[in-house]
Write a structure and sequence with these properties.
The chain has helices at about 1-5, 65-75, 90-95, 105-110, 130-140, 160-180, 190-205, 210-225; strands at about 15-20, 25-30, 45-50, 55, 80-85, 115-120, 145, 150-155. It has about 230 residues and is of the alpha+beta class. An eight-stranded mixed sheet has the order 4-3-2-1-5-8-7-6, with helices on both faces.
Length: about 230
């Protein structure tokens, strides 16, 4: 969360990250409501059960965090780490008609064929029915764009999911800048996009995401060591 704050993925004290506890499929980790991401420490993290009860730690579970994350973890066991943000460039694409992550740069090709789009804004996710609807929209993809709202990234590991979140925002930033020129977007062909996506998937099966995440954590160790308290 400290890293997400550094990259300006956060929005006030809103948005939320969660992680399903290994060996305890009915429980997941979640940060408490009210803390800014730049001040969250390891000791602040809550363990929550599938009914929204705090079973370890002290603090309050934010309503929409439980509604969204509990349903994604329940409906998609593969989604051990679920990251929901309103990061600006990705969210900008949810605010235009037929906003899509276009295959126009190498970073966007990481996600080719693995992005879902929820076209219907459902208001604040203050109940599990809305959370279940969002989980259904995610389907078997690892990225979900929520119309007029934000994005969700789901992954098997924390490192892999954060790596995706980082490069998703980079891809969206470049697309927004390209769109701002008013010139036609130069799209990569479907065949080459699929080929490159397959190359990325083979790489994602390796250590890249973990190596990237470890490098980012070393930066925190040097500059904000209190995150590990």
């Amino acid at each position: 969360m400290r890293l997400a704050a550094r990259f300006e993925f956060h929005e006030g004290i809103d948005n939320h990250f969660s992680y399903a506890v290994p060996g305890m499929e009915d429980r997941f980790l979640l940060h408490p409501y009210g803390l800014h991401w730049s001040e969250v420490t390891a000791g602040d993290i809550l363990m929550v059960d599938r009914e929204g009860r705090v079973v370890a730690g002290e603090g309050e579970v934010e309503v929409s965090a439980f509604a969204i994350h509990s349903r994604i973890h329940r409906q998609h066991p593969r989604a051990r780490c679920v990251l929901h943000t309103h990061m600006p460039y990705a969210t900008a694409l949810t605010a235009v008609e037929q906003g899509r992550l276009e295959p126009i740069n190498q970073n966007s090709l990481r996600f080719y064929g693995d992005v879902a789009y929820d076209e219907d804004y459902g208001g604040l996710a203050h109940d599990v029915d809305e959370g279940a609807r969002i989980a259904a929209a995610l389907g078997d993809k690892r990225v979900l764009f929520l119309a007029n709202h934000g994005v969700i990234v789901a992954g098997e590991t924390i490192a892999g999911a954060f790596d995706d979140l980082y490069f998703l925002e980079r891809a969206c930033r470049l697309q927004v800048l390209a769109m701002a020129t008013g010139r036609a977007l130069k799209r990569v062909s479907e065949n080459m996009a699929a080929h490159t996506a397959a190359q990325f998937r083979r790489n994602n099966g390796g250590p890249y995401g973990q190596i990237h995440f470890d490098a980012l954590k070393r930066r925190l160790d040097r500059e904000e060591p209190d995150y590990a308290r």
